[in-house]
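Could you help me review a protein record that somebody else here produced? This is what I was given.
***
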Amino acid sequence: MKKFLSAAATAIALFASAPSSAALINLDTLVGWDIQDQFDGVPFFYANSFTTSVGKTVKVTDLYVWGDEYRYYINDVAIGTILAPNPPAAFEADPDAAYNSGLFARALISVAPGDVLKFEAITLPAGFPDGTIAVSVAAAPEPGALALLGLGLAGLAGSRRRKQ
């Protein structure tokens, strides 16, 4: 019984320590894609997590083999899962191609200032001992495009006032 309790305590300690030992990557300075394929213990949490001081929208995509499923956490709270659609896709190593194809698991995730975002692989149907995801910051809207949107909305409001 002592061995069983010791093994259970070890498993609980591994589960509890895996997410908290991850290195933090600052999304505010991230350029391009950050490839994650190293797990930090069991369950399969990725070795790195992501944070931001100003808030960001993050792009995430599966890589290489179709069919992996991921759970993502913000501040250690499970928020959602990232699934791959059917049908299976061919091998893909380019994060942009994988994300844009729509055939691999992908998501856009909003991260508020000070939040910590991390990922866990929960289904790896190809049988590999790990899954690979790529993380990048989504492109921010151009200031000019936002100005045009604002002018358009102001024009709509002005034309509505004239009609009344």
